[in-house]
Amino acid sequence: MNTRTCDVVVIGAGASGLAAGTALKAAGLDFVVLEARDRVGGRTYSHTLENGVTIDLGGQWVAPTQGRVLALARDLGLHVFPSHDDGDRVILQGRKADRLVDLALSLDDEVAADIYQVRQKMEDLAASIPLESPWTHPDAEALDRLTYAGWLDQNMTTEGGRWRMKFLGPSVFSVDACELSMLHVAFYFGAAGGVETLTATRGGGQDSRFAAGMQSLSTGMARALGDRVLLNQVVDRIQHNADGVRVRTESLEVRAKYAIVALPPALAGRLRYTPALTAARDLLTQRMPMGTAIKMMLVYDTPFWREEGLSGMAVSDRDVPQLMYDNSPEDGSCGIILGFTEGIPARRWLLESPERRRAEAVRTVVDCFGPKAANPSEFVELSWTEEEFSRGCYAGTMPPGAWISYGAALRDPVGRIHWAGTESATCWAGYVEGALQAGERAAGEIAARLAEV
Predict the structure, then answer these.
(1) pTM metric for this prediction
(2) pLDDT computed for residue 413 by the predictor
(3) Phi and psi of 269, rounded to 5°?
(4) CA 181, CA 132: separation in Å to the nearest integer?
(5) What residues does 240 pair with on adjacent strands?
């Protein structure tokens, strides 16, 4: 057992842990970052296709309002390009594919009006949430008792409108609308700047992509931190007291004054703490399950749908996939349709073979974009629930009752242990932008405590 001594030990070399390390370095503190995987990047993971094109099997998009991500990209010299967004969208119900200029619209005027009025209610509610403490909202208890599905049922009059809006459950949170606290939904949209900001492509949450893949943000940060980042270090125990912390892996013990745990709450709760965590923090980790997401790519020689005036974006009432985007490279040298299967359907389809998922995905894409989609040259997928050190994606979510009961424990330190990770962010929570904010915050908290000594 090797031993290392430093000011701060950071657990997790995703974007949040690496952002914490970067801030600690700037503050002149001694630290080490421990990562269980054989790579950095956490829930960002870039992959090279057989044709040499880089894709992201994890997080991939950046919005114009995500200033930390864009600044870091500039510092690292990374190229960001706009997502393809020209052309009509497709909505597939049964075997009927309809083309729409905007998926928020509808072929039915009554449904369109219903969607418009409830989106405005959601925008207003999201804007009213105190992001640092959602549980202090005047209607927090009522909102946190209500599921997102229940809120839509109360506030919408058309079945077509409800179907459209409930679709935001799996497509945004990777869980179904019946599993989400309405207070959490309002907080999440508020942290992103609103419903439209989060869900839009151009100017919104899916605005742009990284030519080298989004994992390049983490590899760039890790490169600058050098040998302070240690891979293949699976932490199994954190001992802590008034004097400091001891963090153990199979081959290493790190003795530090403070620790930053930069993991999703569900994973952080699986570590062994001596003494045990406070009841509030432990109960929180039991009530923030990860979403279920299977991300898949279908590769073609060309983005043929563009010639037919289609953007490549589609929503479907099928399970595989439910949501699609044009994920082709900037130069259009090949065509790539990105598909998501999420929430309850993803849990069912995880039991099926990759071959069956591929066949079902091809059938859906053909019904959306025509017979040219029948023979992809390559099919790649990743189930984030099966990733040992993620156990789901995109992020941990709050079911009814969690925010008002345990929300304060999300960021409150436990002794000398501080918490990072995108789930603890107040700006773009669930995204890399939120991960960077949370890492910087946790590092700042410790720097301030050390300055007081």
Answers:
(1) 0.97
(2) 98
(3) -70, -15
(4) 17
(5) 245
pLDDT single digits (tens) 169-204: 999 999 999 999 999 999 999 999 999 999 999 999
CB atoms within 10 A of CB 299: 20
SS3 label, residue 449: helix
Rounded CA-CA distance 284/89 in Å is 39
Q: The tokens of 452 are what?
A: 């007081």
**Contact criterion met (CB below 8 Å) for 36 and 271:** no
Find tokens 């424990």 and name the residue. Answer: 409
* Contact present, 216 and 210 (Cβ < 8 Å): yes
Residue 417 one-letter amino acid = I
**What pLDDT, on the 0 to 100 scale, is given for residue 106?**
63
DSSP strand E in 232-363: where? 237-241, 244-248, 252-261, 272-274, 293-300, 310-316, 323-326, 335-342
d(CA 261, CA 238): 10
- β-pairing, 378-383 with 229-230? unpaired
What's the pLDDT tens digit per position in 297-334? 999 999 999 999 999 999 999 999 999 999 999 999 99
Distance CA 432, CA 114 (A): 33
Strands 46-48 and 54-56: antiparallel
72: left (phi over 0), alpha (psi -120 to 50) or beta: alpha
Q: Shortest CA distance to 433 belongs to which of 40, 41, 27, 72?
A: 72
| Helix 182-192 and helix 148-155, axial crossing angle in degrees, nearest 10 | 90
User: Which residues in the chain come in under a pLDDT of 50?
Assistant: none
Position 100 scores a pLDDT of 86
Q: Are 217 and 432 in contact (CB under 8 A)?
A: yes
- Give the DSSP H or E segment for 229: strand 229-230
Q: Who's near 212: CB < 8 A, 6+ residues apart?
A: 46, 54, 78, 79
Radius of gyration of the chain from its Cα atoms, rounded to whole angstroms: 22
Q: How many helices (H) and strands (E) does the chain have?
A: 16, 20
